[in-house]
Specification:
The structure holds 2 protein chains of 2 kinds.
Chain A: H1 2-22, H2 26-46, H3 50-75, H4 87-110, H5 127-137, H6 139-160
Chain B: H1 5-41, H2 57-67, H3 78-94, E1 106-107, E2 110-111, H4 121-142, H5 146-177, H6 182-189, H7 208-221, H8 233-236, H9 246-271, H10 288-316, H11 322-351
The chains are: A mainly alpha, B mainly alpha.
């Protein structure tokens, strides 16, 4: 049951990601991104992270992607033109991607002994346990991150403000 | 699980069908209630011709909407134009799945008065609400009509702004219950004395501030008056559903009323003790069956009160201006909701012994 769900939503996630790249209209790409985000939420849920799954849907699939579609609608972005792609992409992009892939594969293979098997859907991390970790054991990194985000918000406000 | 997978599926399918049918009936009669009440507020009768007291009016409306021609304007974005009302109605109907209607009564290991008892029920409700806005946003954009687009833009901006206040207003209640499961939140509020209603979050938890923030944010989330700017008829013709006709229009309409009912259910569960009797043992039943029925009775009464309030507010208050709407949401509701969290936290910290 869990495996079937994992396969379905994993496939949906990959299909959404591919569709995101292949679609020519930005709003279709944005909608594919919503599908990817929501499928990721299901995958989190299968791994037992229920709060993370809900937060993923509320924050990413909900608020942030609404903002994306909002901007696309407001700018009235039209269809993209298909080009052959820049030469730089062929010269640097493909070798770069290949190198990155090889590096990741090397790291994974050389450390394969450190990994454990994950059993999908076996345990659930309750929200209370998560908040214990977040607000007691990792309080300092959490607060530092929130200050970082606050600085980013202030920066955005400062940039968006009209000069008088 | 004691029950087999097959029984589980069958029983749940029956539950879903029953709940959806009851919800859609409730939606139809909420529309009639609204037309009647707004009629009375405006010193006229409202629908009174179809059936006794106009009681069959929803059926006539439904038949009319089914039989109307489904116009498809030529310049619309075809797949999204069709998809948008489905998203709106789908999200509105899905959110009822986590709502418990009555006491936890098990029958062969199946909870009779709730489709699914989820440990993060409240978050799921918020998540579905935040996805539901795509129905309105996409409908406005894909209609290829400037009024629709303006309505959709207003709706998206309004919903993301007020979602913040909505989410923050619920934190106080969650802190008090220590759980996101809706049944746990109700169980915190039940009491057995004759004044059991004093145990409600609204009174005992000092969450009335949170309740008013929730109520106003929820009105904005459901695009209801006085926050119905996405469909302001004096400025935008009909807003996001200008180009929709027949059943597609009806789907938006049903989604709006289903959302109203869900908001009423959530307010009942979080602040007004859910299905528990407000007067302790008075009218809470003695046998198994009477307990179950009276629990549902109290729940329905409380939800009805909220629907009544919705309509009353609609009949009384004028529409906000757009900048007033944004100022109210960001500069008033959000700070009040945050202050409520701080005060609730202090109060709990002073009352509870430190472990």
């Amino acid at each position: 049951m869990h495996l079937a769900l994992f396969l379905i939503f994993g496939a949906l996630c990959v299909a959404g990601a591919l569709n995101l790249l292949l679609q020519r209209h930005p709003i279709n790409s944005a909608l594919s991104l919503i599908v990817v985000m929501s499928s990721l939420a299901v995958l989190y849920l299968l791994l037992g992270a229920e709060f993370l799954a809900a937060a993923q849907v509320i924050v990413y699939a909900g608020a942030i992607m609404v903002l994306f579609t909002f901007v696309i609608m407001l700018l009235n972005a039209g269809r993209e033109e298909r080009t052959r792609g820049s030469k730089m992409a062929y010269v640097i992009g493909f070798p770069g991607a290949a190198v990155l892939l090889a590096l990741l594969a090397y790291v994974f293979i050389s450390h394969s002994g450190d990994f454990h098997r994950v059993h999908v859907g076996e345990y659930v991390v309750s929200t209370a346990a998560l908040s214990g970790v977040l607000f007691r054991d990792l309080l300092l990194p959490f607060e530092v991150t929130s200050i970082l985000i606050l600085i980013a918000i202030l920066g955005a406000v400062a940039l968006a403000r009209k000069e008088h | 699980m004691e029950t087999g997978l097959f029984t589980f599926l069958i029983v749940n399918l029956i539950k879903i069908v029953v709940v959806v049918v009851i919800l859609l009936m409730a939606v139809a009669y909420t529309v009639l209630l609204e037309r009647k009440l707004v009629g009375r507020i405006q010193n006229r009768w409202g629908p009174s011709r179809v059936g006794p007291f106009g009681l069959l009016q929803p059926l006539a409306d439904g038949a009319k909407l089914f039989l109307k021609e489904d116009l498809m304007p030529l310049a619309v974005e075809r797949p999204l134009y069709v998809l948008a009302p489905m998203i709106a109605l789908g999200c509105a109907l899905t959110s009822i799945a986590v709502i418990p209607f009555g006491a936890n009564i098990q029958w062969h290991g199946v909870d009779l008065f709730q489709i699914s008892d989820v440990s993060i029920g409240l978050l799921i409700l918020l998540g579905i609400t935040s996805v539901g806005v795509y129905g309105i946003a996409l409908s406005g954009w894909s209609s290829n009509n400037k009024y629709s687009l303006l309505g959709a833009l207003r709706a998206s901006a309004q919903v993301i702004s007020y979602e913040l206040a909505l989410g923050l207003s619920l934190v106080g209640v969650v802190m008090r219950a220590g759980s996101l499961r809706l049944r746990d939140i109700v169980n915190v509020q039940t009491g057995h004395s004759a004044v059991a209603f004093l145990h409600w979050n609204f009174f005992e938890g000092f969450q009335f501030v949170a309740f008013f923030v929730y109520l106003m944010a929820a009105y904005a989330e459901t695009n209801r008056a006085p926050f119905d700017l996405p469909e302001a008829e004096s400025e935008l013709t009909a807003g996001y559903h200008t180009e929709y006709s027949s059943m597609k229009f009806a789907m938006f309409f049903m989604a709006e009323y289903a959302n109203m009912i869900t908001v009423g259910c959530v307010a009942t569960l979080l602040f007004f003790g859910g299905w528990s009797s407000p007067f302790g043992h008075f009218l809470s039943g003695s046998g198994r069956i009477s307990t179950a029925i009276l629990a549902v009775f109290w729940f329905v009464v409380k939800v009805f009160f909220f629907l009544f309030l919705y309509i009353w507010v609609r009949g009384t208050l004028p529409r906000f201006r757009y900048d007033q709407l944004m100022g109210f949401g960001w500069k008033f509701l959000v700070p009040v909701a945050i202050a409520n969290i701080v005060v609730t936290g202090l109060w709990m910290g002073l009352r509870l012994p430190v472990h």
